[in-house]
């Protein structure tokens, strides 16, 4: 997905790379604990030691220290002669409670390094009661669990705010390439269930129905993004997906260069001319603010009817959203996300974005804040997703009254410099990447407020029924 001027700090979704652990100084943190180390952890209660470890990570968060090794925590909180196993049993309850994240970095093809831990913003709100609860969970597992705490298990899940990925979307085919830093989401012992990903069959049926209305957009035969059917003869997507074929902004496009292929569901699927449609040159609706465009499909030469339209829409609310689209410009995929937005979730997202903004300015050479744009108008629905380049324009649906209702359209992600591969030598962990989209209700209400009656009529047609 390409960027436009109004979104110069947020970009399209893209695969990520592996990174080596940061070797920045541990002395700065250790000095802050001088005089408080425990030479013998048995002399201190579990609660007191857990509190010391939590305070250690709070300090790390404030000075943007990341990828902390267990040995660093041990030396600072237990004593200079301590080893990592002294605190590993304390770090696991923090990791499982989503207070710190755990990351593994591959050293060679068949081996991995020790885990690194990174404090999440939630650590600032831990109460004394919570500390006692976490301390009570130390050594609460079986001997097999405790024996395996240092055995790395690499998954694609990540402990970070807003994340709630579906299991199916993490199974990458052989054609997938990624620069993502793998992180552990489940307790590190054999056959761990981790986060339960049971789904209602209804949601699977709903996504299958939605897939019939979603297509892969091409320019000059090359995949560029996703779009979905609405109304009698229309398709909606992001403006930046089709920007290269717009001839007379904002009214005309080169319809001969632009096509959409529906129902591409396998990687090596051969093109079926009966599933490929072109567009009329006149743009039906164009909104730069929401990066939203309505295009009119051209009747198929073979008389094939248009694919079914998505007819049901709803306001976004605090529930799981199912994305259906073409990440990577390949076969159709799905992902389930947990949406967040301002001001409803300010207590959760503002500290998170503030932390990321501070990290951004210290991490990238241009010293820019790539994250505060997420809080700027118009309202953005933010989330974490496995979707990458090619997913712009994907619909996100919620199940309401047993029907799939479109609530959001995927727009892009940030930090934009990462998605644009501006600094390929600087990897970005998954919990530092944030994707977003726009609520269909916001777009709909803006169209209804237009002074142009044609725009109002179009809104009534393409946004069929609100539930």
TrEMBL record:
InterPro entries: Peptidase_S1_PA. Residues 9-24, 33-45 have a biased composition (Polar residues). It holds the Pfam family Trypsin_2. Residues 1-45, 139-196 are annotated as: Disordered. This is Serine protease.
């Amino acid at each position: 997905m390409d960027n436009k001027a109004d979104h110069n700090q947020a970009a399209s979704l893209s695969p990520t790379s592996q990174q080596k652990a940061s070797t920045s100084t541990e002395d700065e943190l250790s000095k802050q604990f001088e005089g408080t180390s425990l030479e013998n952890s048995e002399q201190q209660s579990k609660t007191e030691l857990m509190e010391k470890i939590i305070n250690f990570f709070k300090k790390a968060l404030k000075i943007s220290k990341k990828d902390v090794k267990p040995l660093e925590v041990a030396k600072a909180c237990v004593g200079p002669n301590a080893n990592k196993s002294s605190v590993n049993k304390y770090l696991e309850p923090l990791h499982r409670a989503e207070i710190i994240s755990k990351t593994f970095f591959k050293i060679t093809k068949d081996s991995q390094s020790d885990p690194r831990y990174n404090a999440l913003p939630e650590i600032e709100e831990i109460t004394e009661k919570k500390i006692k609860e976490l301390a009570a969970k130390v050594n609460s597992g079986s001997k097999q669990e405790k024996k395996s705490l240092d055995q790395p298990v690499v998954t694609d899940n990540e402990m970070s705010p807003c994340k709630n990925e579906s299991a199916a979307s993490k199974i990458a085919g052989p054609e997938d390439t990624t620069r993502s830093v793998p992180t552990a989401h489940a307790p590190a012992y054999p056959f761990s269930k981790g986060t339960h990903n049971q789904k209602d069959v209804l949601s699977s049926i709903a996504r299958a129905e939605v897939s019939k209305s979603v297509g892969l957009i091409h320019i000059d035969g090359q995949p560029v993004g996703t779009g979905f059917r609405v109304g009698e003869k229309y398709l909606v997507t992001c403006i930046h997906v089709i920007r290269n074929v717009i001839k007379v902004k904002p009214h005309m496009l080169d319809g001969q260069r632009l096509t959409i292929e529906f129902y591409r569901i396998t990687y090596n699927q051969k093109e079926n001319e009966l599933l490929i449609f072109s567009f009329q040159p006149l743009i039906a609706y164009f909104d730069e603010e929401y990066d939203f465009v309505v295009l009119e499909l051209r009747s198929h030469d073979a008389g094939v009817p248009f694919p079914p339209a998505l007819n049901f829409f709803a306001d976004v609310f605090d529930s799981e959203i199912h994305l259906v689209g073409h990440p990577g410009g390949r076969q159709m995929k799905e992902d389930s996300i947990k949406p967040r937005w301002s001001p409803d979730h300010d207590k959760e997202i503002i500290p998170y974005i503030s932390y990321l903004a501070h990290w951004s300015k210290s991490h990238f050479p241009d010293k820019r804040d790539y994250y505060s744009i997420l809080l700027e108008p118009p309202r953005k629905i933010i989330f974490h997703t496995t979707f990458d380049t090619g997913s712009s324009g994907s619909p996100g649906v919620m199940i309401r009254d047993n029907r799939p209702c479109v609530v959001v359209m995927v727009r892009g992600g940030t930090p934009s410099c990462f998605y644009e591969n501006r600094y390929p030598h600087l990897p970005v962990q998954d919990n530092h990447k944030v994707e977003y989209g726009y609520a269909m209700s916001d777009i709909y209400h803006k169209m209804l407020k237009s002074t142009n009656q044609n725009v109002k009529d179009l809104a009534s047609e393409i946004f069929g029924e609100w539930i």
